[in-house]
């Protein structure tokens, strides 16, 4: 028991440091991009298109890599696979730590695009699988909420640091913390599946199926003949459980909206209300503090009486409300007020991952989480292709009608589709194996 708690604590520290290094550059990257591409302006279509193109390419890469990384982690361990994305993420940060001139920015842009095809979402995906290896089904939603709270805490600390650090120092700190995170993880984090037999896995079950062999004996592990999943494997995975496929649909539309907000919201706020690094940091700080408190303290209290399916629907509905408010914002204080809704918005991602986890076998957590991450990445390919041109068009003088937040309103409609789909997720029996319940810990 004590050994497992220690292992999770090291995972939390690793996730915190990795998240800190990633989040600290978020408030400043818009200003860095604008200065490098369109110096002296608050509106730049080229910057929007560059950001959207990068996001689409990264989404394409991660859509292919996430199922592979998740599946390989089931075979070779979470720690081994964590090393790759954590190490690669250091490279682009180090470039801007040296200089932020136009040439250095484009070098960063190219390296960030290439490395993020492997890194984006990998650490979160593998961390979720690591937690699922150690936490029983009944407490998994709370555990995922706590893990998300750790990430939100890293977000808060990173945003505070970005608020007071100079831009150059921000990237230097990010590089140092990224290196520290890799070293810490390699030294202290224990492998969560080291006692499992390599090459063995359990299938994801269809709802209502029992794991019984034809001869009536207890279930036996099935060997995996290939470690690289094909498109057919992923389709079979999605068809294995109606709840799993419905959760994948929710993940797609939610990520489509999230990708739209990433590619549009900062440029919208900069053009509409002339936000700069400090205002972006303030917004992120408010959202981060509220999210951390909610995920660490409020969500664990609500999971048992309400359930992860209802929490998912509630979170999506409130996120849709937030997008609507931002799209029609009539004053600069409206986006600040809307971020208070983060206290409920943050219920959605951990609840969705909990639903997915319960539909996966004990030794297919990496594959299941990787599959959902791949679906989300696919949405991230499409999002900038839709929302970046919309944002650029409605922020320009050639807009067909005056509605600067039209792209954000379209994002709200996408979230409403995700909300409606979430209502269709049935109450499916868990297919996670309880064979290793003695190795699980309660939260």
Automatic annotation (TrEMBL):
Annotated ranges, domain Major facilitator superfamily (MFS) profile: 7-430
Pfam families per UniProt: MFS_1
Annotated keywords: Membrane, Transmembrane, Transmembrane helix, Transport
Annotated SUPFAM superfamilies: MFS general substrate transporter
Superkingdom field: Eukaryota
PROSITE patterns the UniProt entry points to: MFS (PS50850)
CDD domains, per database record: MFS_SLC46_TetA_like
InterPro entries attached to this UniProt entry: MFS, MFS_dom, MFS_trans_sf, Tet-R_TetA/multi-R_MdtG-like
Keyword Ubl conjugation belongs to the record: no
Listed transmembrane segments: 7-26, 46-68, 80-97, 109-131, 143-165, 171-189, 247-268, 280-299, 311-330, 377-395, 401-420
Topology in membrane: Multi-pass membrane protein
Record has Lipid metabolism as a keyword: no
Gene Ontology CC, one term: membrane
Subcellular location: Membrane
GO molecular function, a single term: transmembrane transporter activity
Descriptive protein name: Hippocampus abundant transcript-like protein 1
Lineage of producing organism: Eukaryota, Viridiplantae, Streptophyta, Embryophyta, Tracheophyta
